[in-house]
Amino acid sequence: MASVALRGIKKQYDGNAVLDSIDLDIADGELVVFVGPSGCGKSTLLRIIAGLEDISEGVLEIGGRPSNTIAPSARGIAMVFQSYALYPHMSVFENMGFALKLAKVSKDEIRERVARAARILQIEHLLDRKPAALSGGQRQRVAIGRAIVRKPEVFLFDEPLSNLDAALRGQTRVELARLHRELGATMIYVTHDQVEAMTLGQKIVVLNAGRIEQVGTPSDLYERPANRFVAGFLGSPRMNFFAAKLVGEQGRGAVIELAAGVRVQVAADVKRAIKGDRVTLGVRPEHLQIMRPGANADQHAGIQASVALVEYLGDVILVYAHVDGASEMVAVKCDADIAPPSAGSRVELVFPATRAFLFDGRGCVFAPAWLEGASAPLAQAL
Amino acid sequence: MKQPSQLAWTVVGVVCSVLLAGLWLFPLLWALSTSLRPEHETVSAVFHWLPRVWTLDAFRTTLGAGNLTRWLFNSALVASLVTMITMAVSLGAAYAFSQLRFRGRALLFGAAMLAFLLPFEALLVPLFRTMNVLGLINSYAGLVLPQVVSPVVIYVFKQFFDAIPGDFREAAVMDGAGPLRVLWSVYLPISGNIVWAMAIVTFIGAWNNFLWPFIIVTSNEMMTIPLGLTQTYDAFGVRYAQLMAAALLGALPVGLAYALFQRRVTQGFLAASGLKG
Contact at 8 Å (CB) between A62 and A2? Predict the structure, then answer.
């Protein structure tokens, strides 16, 4: 297995920058997920690593070897395509053995390696079938098997689960995680689905408009997003954002004023900002709490809102509300055991100061600060 | 159960189909009927649908004339060579235009398609002069070479290749296949039906080609069937029974080939059109 290093990678199409100064290190045996919205450049980056796209600028190293000009088949890489790309005229066995046949591997060894891969993926009974006779999940396994037989240094997955139904996606995710443990392989996985990213990745690379927004473990990105984009991209429903103005500091935190004049406290270090600066408050749906008007006796008032919609999901209830003075709806995730407010009712939204994020005018997060008398932010019972 | 109006339209459709089929079949049946008559009956003032005297004399004379078998051989050889070379050239060109990226690709493709605008008749003189300079007049090479470039076939293949998902090519590249290997192992098998269809159409076109052999061939031995048929005359004029017998014998191989591969031709055109069929 091998490490992958990207140094200053840039990619342009007709003068338009698709990727801009990508620097990334992927350790040997790591499962890294590239995630981001459509058009962010994640698939282009994967194709660059595969050798299917040229690099405009920068250096790609695979196993410590500069690989910019090395042919795709000589990079020690195998790729699983979104569409599986199984040759329709070949049987499963022939599909899996095609690369070995081109490499002039002996027929006995081809048979042995295909059989081993088929055993791992439990597709031994499908070897004589053509792709048209397979289900989506079976084709997925054959595509993975085609990659495994080549014994690559790095596996590349380009949105491999996007053509599967929800149930099969969940099942296959577990299988992929098992495969990674079993093979100990370096894997690079591209997806637009943040659930796949959070559940599969040991390390997640969040991309946006050709740039890396943040790299970290799933908990790093969720608990300590570097900017508004990452904060809003991960989490479902996504983080709620409120436009605000910085009005002062209190203790080691900040006081901000939302639309409709409501002032709230946030545990953020705002020393690099000045009073009056435009900021954005971010609170995750699970950290917002609903109180009936008048029930909140705290010094800082809650955010006034009207309930628009209540969604019952079985284990949780999602309450969508219009905040006074704001155009966007906010989402609140509530325990299904608690009776939710009805649509149309007035509510007050409160949140723990240490569970909110504050972003500056450029979308960068203010570092968390502990309020006077409070213990470590994440441990505070609220 | 069909509605009366639907039934009426079905009847109209069947009647029209039968009439059209009859119109198409009539020349063939008349040729067959003529070939089975004695020569004098073909110019009789009295009209008969069927021969009054049935005879195979025309076929006997034609086959015994000496050169029909040579003409059949020439037609088979030329048509086969034209088909094989046209397929090879067109597949390679179509694959390059469809899947490869190189400077001038669009310009080159446009130039190849411009040939659509030029009727073959306009190229006769320059082609003849070229073959003359190369010393290929009255030769198999002279017969074959000008027929092996077909913009239509290139275009059909290119359109088909364009519709094949690029993932197949990329997967093959990742597996270690070069461009020719990708064409041979991936694109050709996927395009099987359309290749058969184009091959058969090209073969029939080359077999039936009269104009170019008429220009390039100067000896009886090098003639192809369509050209050879013009030789069926004697001091008394055209021998119609022999002419029809020669025409039927000349068309027989192509007719049989089409009958054998008709399904592939239909599937090929359906595949090219995107219909399920």
Answer: yes
